[in-house]
Design a protein that fits this description.
The chain is an alpha+beta fold. The chain has 5 helices and 5 strands. It has helices spanning 12-21, 37-48, 76-79, 99-113, 128-136, and strands at residues 2-6, 52-59, 62-73, 81-90, 116-120. Strands 1-2-3-4-5 form a 5-stranded mixed β-sheet, with helices on both faces. The chain starts with a strand and ends in a 14-residue tail after the last helix.
Length: 150
């Protein structure tokens, strides 16, 4: 049975490795050791922010997945909170076992517990299988997202 918990600093290497093993992450992440300073800074900022929850998914104590939930206060929707789910990764050795679905169900419950009225995510256009997965979870592609690298 998998478990979800808040990531600890000691988990950072495993998290970065999961991000780097992804097709898109392979070109933008650096899993070399020691862990690069930008990851250290990002972890410290996330860990200190009460609206951030960087989670790890474990199986028998081994990290097999990760995801990050950000609680976003909004003026729109009458001051509603929304949850942003990002960086969802499951180790290749554990894919196809329903762990991704469990991760999202965990994230949905976490967001509900924080008072969120909706959850949202972004996904790369090159991932049609991921798009189908999100639709099966009840996500609807209602918006077009834009990003700009600075």
């Amino acid at each position: 049975m998998v478990e979800f918990r808040r990531a600890e600093h000691a988990d950072l290497e495993a998290i970065v490795t999961l991000l780097a093993q992804d097709d898109l992450g392979a070109g933008r992440e650096d899993a070399s050791l020691p862990i690069a300073e930008p990851y250290e800074r990002a972890f410290a900022a996330i860990d200190a922010d009460p609206n951030q929850f960087l989670a790890v998914v474990t199986d028998g104590g081994t990290i097999i997945g990760t995801l990050q939930v950000t609680i976003i206060p909004n003026i729109s929707r009458m001051g509603a909170l929304r949850g942003q789910i990002e960086g969802v990764r499951v180790a290749a050795t554990h894919q196809g076992q329903g762990i991704g679905k469990q991760a999202f169900e965990w994230a949905f419950e976490y967001c509900r517990s924080r008072g969120c009225v909706l959850v949202q995510l972004t996904t790369d256009k090159t991932r049609p299988a991921a798009h189908q997965f999100y639709e099966k979870l009840g996500f609807v592609a209602t918006h077009v997202g834009f990003k700009k690298v600075l």
